[in-house]
């Protein structure tokens, strides 16, 4: 049990700092600032939040410089008023899977906090933030008389020889996120692999020729699948064969429902960027920095140095929702909205994590959720799953498939 306190009479500098907006943005997390702002940002309460951060640093045996202060948020449960610590980023890793109880007290002149490890204790409530609010707003409780037709039909055009796992991960994530029916259009050669892992999808089998070109009949089969869908995901593990190029072109030109373009779908589009203009349906692109660089004819370093500017300008110029992945994933809308995600950790930097995210976005879009909201909710939930997996399995050992396995627990916690 470790404690920290601040004497607000003797430390007038603390009072001045807490009143400074720049100091607040560096020290307090988004949800923490929101709760404090709702009460007029009282100095003693803000000081208590700072004390909790310091007490946490003592509990894990580090100093305050070991983590971003915004990664430790002192929040109150909206129903019970009970204080709890919401951890993310480096602070979550330092916690090592332990949960921490916190007690705070303050007067107008003094603030203190006590933090104690309670490994195995009850999980803290999810901290309020834009991502969580979006997810709860768009995912309503299901009526008792609903059926699968009420929750959309998603078409996933994913996978190729050697990349069956991408199809498995994107489709399984889509299934876990609630789409009523998921159809997977993939090469017949990988069907046994995918079907052995997943019993729930229906399949449209394609038959690309040995040289990679599309076979007669594949175009009609794909067109029929697009026509009966409420959203289409294309690109995960697709490759860049002639058949893959034909499929990307056909989906962009034919779809009248939201299209989520990921991975090789983006790489194909980057070679002929004007192909994006052929899509008359809502379009979501999910590039990592390297793919974004290909879209722009730039370098990944250029993208990383101007992430917000690039996300906003590309989204507006092409009329697409852009999900620029990486630390602090950005979701940009053509109307100027920009969301910066605060969940997630470096353990998610593994092949397959993007396939999971793409399946989640596409599943929400198939259920009729507006593309921007679908992307914001999925990005938040994807990162939250990553944070929970890091707590249970470590950042080094966690896998993208663990993210999918974590989703049921998180939906229960969110109440959906």
Structure report:
- The protein is α/β, with parallel strands linked by helices.
- The protein has two domains: 116 residues, 4'-phosphopantetheinyl transferase domain (Ribosomal Protein L22, Chain A, Alpha-Beta Complex); 285 residues, UDP-N-acetylmuramoyl-L-alanine:D-glutamate ligase, CATH 3.40.1190.20.
- Strand 13 and strand 14 form a beta hairpin.
- Helix 7 runs parallel beside helix 8, helix 7 runs parallel beside helix 17 and helix 11 packs parallel to helix 12.
- The model has no long low-confidence stretch (mean pLDDT 91).
- Counted up, domains total 2
Low-confidence stretches: none
Instruction: Estimate percent helicity.
Output: 40-55%
CATH class of the largest domain: Alpha Beta
Quote the distance from N terminus to C terminus: 36 Å
Strand content: 15-25%
Architecture (CATH level 2) name of the largest domain? 3-Layer(aba) Sandwich
Q: Number of DSSP strands?
A: 14
Give the overall shape, derived from the CA principal axes: elongated
List the helices and strands and how they pair.
Layout: E1 2-7, H1 12-19, H2 21-27, H3 30-38, H4 43-59, E2 72-76, E3 83-87, H5 89-95, E4 100-106, E5 110-117, H6 130-138, E6 153-157, H7 164-176, E7 181-187, H8 191-197, E8 202-206, H9 218-227, E9 231-234, H10 242-254, E10 259-261, H11 264-271, E11 283-285, H12 289-296, H13 300-305, H14 307-318, E12 321-324, E13 330-332, E14 338-340, H15 353-366, H16 371-393, H17 400-414
Parallel strand pairs: 6-7, 6-9, 7-8, 9-10, 10-11, 11-12
Antiparallel strand pairs: 1-5, 2-3, 4-5, 12-13, 13-14
Helix pairs in contact: 6-16, 7-8, 7-15, 7-17, 9-10, 11-12, 15-16, 16-17
